[in-house]
Amino acid sequence: MLKSLVNAPIDIEEKMDGVAQVFDMVLQESMDYGSDKNTLKHINQFQKRNKSTMNDLYQQIESEMKKMNMAQQLQFSVSILRKPYIKSFMDIVPKVEKKINRKIRQISMFGKFLKFLNPF
Questions:
Q1: Which residues contact 47 (CB under 8 A, 6 or more apart)?
Q2: What is the pLDDT of residue 107?
Q3: How many angstroms separate the CA atoms of 48 and 109, rounded?
């Protein structure tokens, strides 16, 4: 799914939607593991397998964000924060963070994309 987002002729909001859906899926899957070690391993393996694709998506979104003025960036962030998957993130992220004893933003792939939600 991620590779198809890179080449898809869609706007950055739709690309962020796709990335968020994948992140949510990975976090949900990671919670299925019994140990914190395996949970973190699952997240790290996903990150390693998809590093190039994620970097491409990040660069595309970052490039489009740079074209926006501050008001447009804020509007973009607000539109993302209103998406249904944000509620899912609000539920799963604290659980994953507690389980792995680390903040999600400390995991580079997640941290990069979380920056788009706060343009300041």
A1: 54, 107, 108, 109
A2: 76
A3: 9
Helix, strand, coil percentages, rounded to 5, for the chain: 80, 0, 20
Alpha helices of 8-69 — where are they, by DSSP H? 12-30, 36-49, 51-66
Instruction: Confirm whether 62 is domain-assigned.
Output: yes
Helix (H) or strand (E) holding 31: none
Domain assignment of residue 74, given as a range = 12-117
The predicted model scores a pTM of 0.80
The residues of the chain scoring below 70 in pLDDT are 108, 117-120
How many structural domains are present in the chain?
A: 1
Residue 3 belongs to some domain of the structure? no
CA distance 87 to 81: 9
71 DSSP assignment: H
Compute the distance between CA of residue 31 and CA of residue 99 in angstroms, rounded to an integer. 8
Phi/psi-derived region of residue 101, left when phi > 0, alpha when psi is between -120 and 50, beta in every other case: left
